[in-house]
């Protein structure tokens, strides 16, 4: 009898590997296997595995057209499920779902078995937040509307048909690739609708009392609804029974500066925070994970409450709008106001660490991201923006060390008091100091012209863990910024020149161990061959011994990456002076 094995592949979800009777006898718990992920079912958090690769790579969810008219070939891979539906393989990385109500299932005299090839099917709905493709065996007479074309202004009417109801609310087919969701208001539904109608600006139409659902909107009923919110990233669409008092703003039109007061109404309270409608196509979130979040104030909010908030960050790519209860001291920077290319530094706070990336709030309308580098939530950092990633709607950053006090010549450029005229007058009264500063600026400018171009090209081409870990000098008013020193990158170039060939991953590797008080001590290991000599080895020299290694210890630092940079500096100094370190 065939069975299956549960396999840990280092993912948040375990995988299921089908096994024959013979394979079951040969496998034991703890054995390591080479397997391939052939499809996934995100709604059930399941991965389907295979021992051999597919003949052709799978397509992504976004490659499928959910217009109800484009045909696709399908093969049954599972079912019937608890609700009578079947799972289908369309050649997508996510499985498709054929509902029990489909004519193909209803008219079939026997259950559909795994491996059965079906007639052509048509994708009628695509839900990105749970990776589901809903299909039908019947072709629609008219195409469905794309998510991007859906007007989420709250005043454009759409005809909807009730598909089903669940704990979240009522799901309606509105002729779009994504269904609309009318939230259930529960016991507070009636009072919220009453209060919102009196205020004239709250999202009452999003909330329907649970006791009224069966009477007003049974399954199959038709209703005119209005799209109040949508997120093209998650594929969620929220609809209302009533239109907005005035059309909703697009995300691009909303002032995300942290100082503009916005009036809104609470639509939902969850463990993540409080969701607020501020008259925008996206719902805003008062997150509990923010450093300045006040749980006591958030806990007092209830669905239907009117609240005053300020928009602090937005992400069109991920459909997010971050709010705050208190205003900022100064207006946040717009994307166009941020200086990129590694030519400026900004203070920031790590607001999230996920999947090896640290996300930083540096007082801009969008956040930034950089390699984790041992950072944790709440860490205060100084970052340098490199390039704006339009696909992520975020700045790619590099991490720099804390700034040191300014040289005396540059301190005059950051005079604490008085108007610009007073500062200039005070500065003009010191001719000798002025000549020294002019000479200093000329030297810095000449140095910058020779180095900064190569540095900017380097950081844009490779955003790795070695970027931006050198110390940038303070950026005073009128000062010329100097590029960071990337010792690990310079060491790689030195080793490559010594070996006479491109450096491979096994040529240079770093190790680090935790020492006292949470500090780190790192070391770097290099190939022994010819690196301590002044004469580079010739490419392809097969007589060279590449098995011996050189090891250099770095100094102890609070951050692992700083200790790695220290080890790289010591390695360069030793190689350039002819010493071999520890063999």
From TrEMBL:
Pfam families under this entry? S1 (PF00575)
Q: Where does the S1 motif domain start and stop, copy by copy?
A: 259-326
InterPro entries named among the record's database cross-references: NA-bd_OB-fold, S1_domain
Would you tell me the protein name for this molecule?
Answer: S1 motif domain-containing protein
Molecular function (GO) terms for this protein are: nucleic acid binding
Q: PROSITE patterns, per this entry?
A: S1
Q: Which organism is it from?
A: Polarella glacialis
